[in-house]
Amino acid sequence: MDRAVVTQGAIWETESSEAKMLSSDGVARKPGATAAYPNTSGTLTCMMQDGKRVGYTAMGKGVYTMATGSGASLAGKSYSWVVRPTGPRSYTVDVTVD
Question: Which pLDDT tens digit goes with each residue over 21-35?
Fold first, then answer.
């Protein structure tokens, strides 16, 4: 679902510079396609420099539980994701369908 608009929620448990995803789900939409998913796992690691956070990396896995329209072939498929920061308060999410 390249260039889809995503609405997602997530709950993280943090300890020091590490975080574990406790719960996450969302919906990806674009004209003619919709896909819903829960993320089944996720980790986030903060990059520190001189005691300050200077960035992060995050990755995880999930499964498309529902998909319609041109995205219907995603239904039931699992995926992995990687988040890459692109600047203050912005990032990209790369999803690879397994």
Answer: 999 999 999 999 999
User: What are the helix (H) ranges across 1-98?
Assistant: none
The span from the CA of 60 to the CA of 53, in Å, is 21
Q: Where are the beta strands (DSSP E) in the chain?
A: 5-15, 18-30, 33-49, 52-63, 66-69, 78-87, 90-97
CA–CA separation, 17 and 37 (whole Å): 27
User: Domain ranges in the chain?
Assistant: 5-90
Averaged over 54-78, what is the pLDDT? 96
Q: How many other β-carbons are positioned within 10 Å of the β-carbon of residue 62?
A: 21
